Batch of 3 targets.
Target 1
Amino acid sequence: MTFVVTENCIKCKYTDCVEVCPVDCFYEGPNFLVIHPDECIDCALCEPECPAEAIFAEDEIPEGQEQFLEINAELAEVWPNISEKQDPPEDAEEWDGKPGKLELLER
Ligand code: SF4
Ligand code: F3S
């Protein structure tokens, strides 16, 4: 089992999650983070830390966002690791909760 970063992280990217991960299994793209499914130890520490409530256990992914399981696995192989919190984008709050952000995912 793994935890998965889902759509609401896109363009919010608060990065609070990376600070609590004991195995540093977050990977960073231009406007989104992903979790490496083979490295995640299923500790659940990151889930309550995300201000955007974008992190879910694999078996609790909201309906319609199932593709993020595959997206996390794919992009964790190509993006660089991130283990320290960064400042979020200036307009992060404006994007929090907006629907249809998947098409804005930058790879
Ligand atoms: Fe890291 Fe634990 Fe979150 Fe997995 S569940 S990404 S190991 S903090
Ligand atoms: Fe994204 Fe939430 Fe982490 S917005 S960067 S999953 S704290």
Note: Residues 9 and 54 are 6 Å apart (CA to CA).
Target 2
Amino acid sequence: MPKPKLLLLHGPNLNMLGMREPSIYGSATMAQIDQCCQQLASELGYNLSCRQSNHEGQLVDWLQAAAGEFVGIVINPGAYSHSSIALLDAIRAITIPVVEVHLSNIHAREAFRSHSVTAAGVVGLISGFGADSYLLGVRAVAQLLADPLSSSS
Ligand code: CA2
């Protein structure tokens, strides 16, 4: 039996991870994070596809198309978290669980980062654990799929 599929989406500038600003975002590259998440997802019984885009509309397209192919989503919407009603609407329009992750603690930085627009549409949000936020996100979505009653939404 093929494993059910999870989708990991990275928003704008996250392709730069490991190359700049390691004091904020850590030294792991996006490829390294993807590999660790794929390994964990596999151990949990899932296949994980990883995608990155700098374009809001591309992320909306992927979210809209996801429900037919994937059973759950982990997303770091990057800076779009703080502004994108389009992403919020796309997240709300799909029925599969979406978990939002952030490398940094968005509540401990500039005031404009402390509000996540997209968080209003997700099952839960993990923020501030560096690259581990992604691994915690994969665990959270897998746990939710295994035990849907554990979610309050
Ligand atoms: O902490 C996070 O994961 C963020 O989503 C990262 C976004 C930021 O706008 C959010 O407020 C919080 C920025 C990602 C930019 O990543 C870079 C990585 C290396 C060099 C430059 C940017």
Note: The mean pLDDT is 95.
Target 3
Amino acid sequence: MTQNIRIVGGKQLKGEVSISGAKNAVLKLMAAALLAKGESKIYNVPELTDVVIMLDVIKQLGAKTSYDKEEKSITIDATNLTSVKASYELVSRMRASFVVLGALVGRCKEAIVAMPGGCAIGERKVDFHIRGLEALGTNVKIENGYVHAKARKLVGNDIYLDIPSVGATENIMLASVLAEGATRIQNAAQEPEIIDLANFLNAMGADIIGAGTSEIVINGVKQDDLKPIEYTTIPDRIEAGTYMAAFVATRGKGIIKNIFPNHLTFYTSKLSKMGADIKLIDPTSIEVSCKKRLEAINIITQPYPGFPTDLQSMAMALATTADGVSIITESLYENRFMQVPELRKMGADIHQERNHALVKGVKNLTGANLRASDLRAGASLIIAALMANGVSTIDNIYHIDRGYELIEEKFRMIGADVVRFEQDDTATISQSKGNLSESQL
Ligand code: EPU
């Protein structure tokens, strides 16, 4: 039974949304918890399928985990790791779990982790991860679909990344915390999630400087210097950007709480240029409204602090009814315009050539039966459906559940007409996704 959602468009959204912890930060913090012996506790953990999969990966390595639904926290006791192998069955379900590679190499000097392979949005190679580990003295072989990394000892080195890859920066940081001497990552990713990982590791006893800039220096420490910690995950900037788009799309007005507004500076400036009104209410809340027809916009996705690729599809949904022609260029992934054919079903006028899309604004979109092909493309269809005339259904929403906590509940709280139903029983509306159950821990 696949789960779908049905959205009646055209409702102006109003009210407050509270943003959950960042998926792309917490998954890496969970891997980082493997470095210290003892029990670490992470707060502000979103209830998402990806978090469940990561818990399974961590359990497979022998760490003990627990989840407190009320407190939104997880504990990871990594006192004893009994395996260095992360199986294909788990890594193939979520490529972000590949980050245990760096943590295992750091802690155990050995890791056997399934190669994640490509995914719907692109090839997503891991060559920089592997080259980075090799530079630290690891011998890396790829055999039977697994990356087998083994080191007698790890020694710090200078590592230059051809692209400021988020995952490669994270894997190298995790592996080098316990290396001898200093590791310098040049052209490092600068995303807020990288800073969060560095803050987490430093709180544990690591010595990392420069996170958030293009050069990160990791001075190796000893295993006994690392202690388990309690830590609160940063807010999810992509979830925040999605709700910002929803208020703008419906000409609504709302407050987005529990965010770090400076993580969204580029996106905010583009939405403002389109005609949205975005005000800082306090250090962790903004008010977003929009009264007029949007103006067309030009966007090129770039590594942070540029326009985030994860919000490109939301901007495209907005551009479909903006006044004029928008040009959207996706420069990170080869195949991140999966929303285009679905938006066309709703009447959008989009001409795509390779990684460029020309979006000619139409007067309005109309509801249609849509399919989510991946997480962010799926989320953009929700934005489009909210602004469309009539009813839309979106299937394959398990993609969306990977990254948005309690999505239909949150949208309903701000006035959207959204219901979840199962494919063969349109009358059964689930009350909650309930992704994390005790049995899954
Ligand atoms: N790349 C390589 N070789 C490598 C590593 C990356 O060629 O060894 C390329 C990739 O193929 C891609 C580009 O570099 O074209 C950027 O990839 P990066 O490594 O920065 O991305 P990632 O770590 O795999 C994370 C997020 C993505 C987000 C990107 C960019 C997680 C779990 N995922 O992916 O989030 O789009 O950074 O910001 O942190 C999402 O949440 O929907 C999502 C896809």
Note: Residues 426-441 have pLDDT under 50 and may be disordered.
